[in-house]
Amino acid sequence: MKHIVTLFKAAADDKDLYLETLQSANITCQIIPVIEFRYCNLDGLKEKLKTHENYSGLILSSPRCVMSLKQSLASDDLDPAWKNKHCFAVGPATEKLASKLFDLNPTGSEAGKGANLTPIIVKNLGTQKDLPLLMPASNLALDNISSALSKENITVDAPTVYETIPSPHLGENIVKSIDASHENILVFFSPSGANSALPFLEQNVLKTAKIISIGTTTADALTKLGVVLSGVCQQPTAGSLLELIKPLTHDEK
Fold it and tell me: How big is the CA angle at 112 (ends 33 and 248), to the nearest 5 degrees?
């Protein structure tokens, strides 16, 4: 029986590395966009970026946070002074985009998630705790980083710069794309994506599919929703996902 991997994630702005990596390994794969993003409060973010002297650096928790900087600045350039400040990123995709768009050199991308980034931030800042860190955030962002850093007497300014909303065509796309007669491998990238998609998935699909989460935060959300997981991808990278999926497809004839 044919295995089909479905990635429940936001649509990529450019080529999707996860999709390309799995397809290059001869794994049939598709993306169902589960969430969309709407930028907000960009004028306020732009003003904060202009006052670099008020901050010790940046925390970028996702590629979308990097894009919020780009959207707020429009045709303006990021003040070069930010390049001389601390910059921290969650995940290699965020690091790559920050480097590409702003020539920044973020630290900590190997942490994989916000909770693991905190000790890296503490170590790098040392005694430089007088000024806050600027961390553009989603309306659904968990407060893990800010809370953990506050215990270390490090202040975080976390303005909401984009809203996460369900894709308006999600239900239609799931019905059209998920076939219960296949060996389905469903991959969820975020708690919001899981919350949006699960109500549209038939119970017989959920019972027979192999379900994977990207990261422990998404895994916790899926478990709370009653989903039995077949695997948790510890690192948010295409290569890590491929290594996790390979054994699940080895019995394909």
Answer: 60
pLDDT at 127: 85
State which of 110, 134, 158 marks the end of a domain.
158
Q: What is the pLDDT of residue 253?
A: 41
Range of the domain at 94: 42-158
Q: With contact defined as beta carbons under 8 Å apart, do 99 and 91 qualify?
A: no
Residues 6+ apart with CB under 8 A from 107: 86, 87, 88, 89, 120, 124
Q: What is the pLDDT of residue 234?
A: 86
Q: Name the pairing type of β-strands 57-60 and 35-39.
A: unpaired
Q: Which residues of the chain, if any, have pLDDT below 50?
A: 252-253
Tokens of 248: 């699940």
- 126 touches 153 (CB < 8 A): no
CATH label of the domain that carries residue 106: 3.40.50.10090
The DSSP secondary structure of 42-85, one letter per residue, reads: HHHHHHHHH-GGG-SEEEE-SHHHHHHHHHHHTTSPPPGGGGGS
CA-based nearest residue to 225, from 184, 196, 195: 195
Assess if residue 211 is contained within a domain.
yes
What is the reported pLDDT for 203?
85
* Dist. CA 173–CA 7, nearest whole Å: 12
Q: Please report whether residue 69 resides in a domain.
A: yes
pLDDT at 252: 46
162-188 confidence digits (pLDDT tens)? 998 889 999 999 999 998 888 999 999
- Measure the CA angle with vertex 17, ends 192 and 19; round to 5°: 75
